[in-house]
Amino acid sequence: MKQNNLIRSQAFVDGKWLAATSGKVFEVINPATGEVIAAVPDMDREDVRKAIDAADAAWPAYRDLTAKERSALLRNWFNLIMERKEELAHLMSIESGKVITESLGEVNYGASFVEWFAEEAKRAYGDVIPPHTKDRRLVVIKQSVGVAAAITPWNFPLAMITRKVGPALAAGCPVIVKPPSETPLTALAISYLAEKAGFPPGVYNTVTSANSSEIGKELCENKKIRKLSFTGSTAVGKILMEQSAPTLKKLSLELGGNAPFIVFEDADLDDAVKGAIISKYRHNGQTCVCANRILVQDSIYDAFTEKFTRAVQELKTGDILNKDVQVGPLINEKGLNKVKEHIKDAVDKGAHILTGGKSLEGLFFQPTVLSDATPNMIIAKEEVFGPVAPIFRFHTEAEAIQMANNTQYGLASYFYSKDVNRCWRVAEALEYGMVGINEGLISTEVAPFGGVKESGFGREGSKYGMEYFMEIKYLCFGGVVK
After folding, report:
1. Which of 12, 171, 436, 447 could join 206 in a cystine, given CB atoms 3.0 to 4.6 angstroms apart?
2. Which residues are catalytic?
């Protein structure tokens, strides 16, 4: 690291860098090497309560800033993130195992939300409604919902924070960020940059803890938290929703996925292979929108599988800081074991390993392709969250849609076809919040990100993203005399 002040060993609360009251810490491990990078505070509910109180105290003054003033603070933060891009990417790679080229891309992607909402802060328009009587005037305004909490995952250590915090800060909401225990260092680094950007004390807070369930419970049950945004598993999302019910908290939940990637017989196979590679193997398959099931029409099944397998064999696994490497390690032993279990189950039920299938040193695993996958396999029902691509066979368009929708999840989906009529039919029939049509990489700050069914609710990014951090207030002016 060029400047070690980006590696923070304390949490950030009320404008101060603090240890846990108990003095406890937990270690952050580099999944590529097993080495300890740093130790950070292991905070408890009382520590988090203090952060919530600080945010609540800061709320009135912060919400009363003009939209232009909040926009300027966000713009400062964006500029500081981009100035430290290389260092942030390096830090992100060593704590998450993400290869450096992807980490550099994530800094750009994460910063784009800060830039976008710096602009959207000035566009939180209300409305004037034609009155129903001559002596009244009806107006709608939007106001900050209050203190917002963000519980974020390890697979996007920067972007999952900025995608939530950007709109919250733009709307006038102080924030409490709870990053995962696997990757708290990137979160603390951008907290340091938020401090330098000039956000007032208490407006931006980051608490670290290895006890996510207890911290999550405090964020759900505390009445001063008016809004909670969570990205993670469906099982945990349901728990948070239940815990938030007594306070009727506003929620945004971006939960599990089981993304289908459909290749129709009229697709451009070379484009489909490129799209499948980037969709499946980005961050070693450890994203909620990674292709989890590759569905290929029978007439082109063999041709696609051959091209795709050759492309997978060209992927390089190794040093995550080498820009020629595309595949890094799994995040931990649990993730590695899940990959092994899914492959064993698939092979026991008739799948064939076309390439890969073996563990390498430490948490590394070979990029793997499975042919002859079937719906009764675990990998068809659960996210593998690893570098394994199962290829399923279908015959008709209707069958492909049925297979794709045969899941409780509905986050991202993808398909390739050159038939414009089919593109409209299939896009409308897929039960997913997002559909990539002839495109394997669909995330952008300008479009709404989110799912349906048990993939959650709420949208992040785009003009819609700020709506979830604001309340609509109706003003009725009576006694207007002309």
Report:
1. 12
2. 254
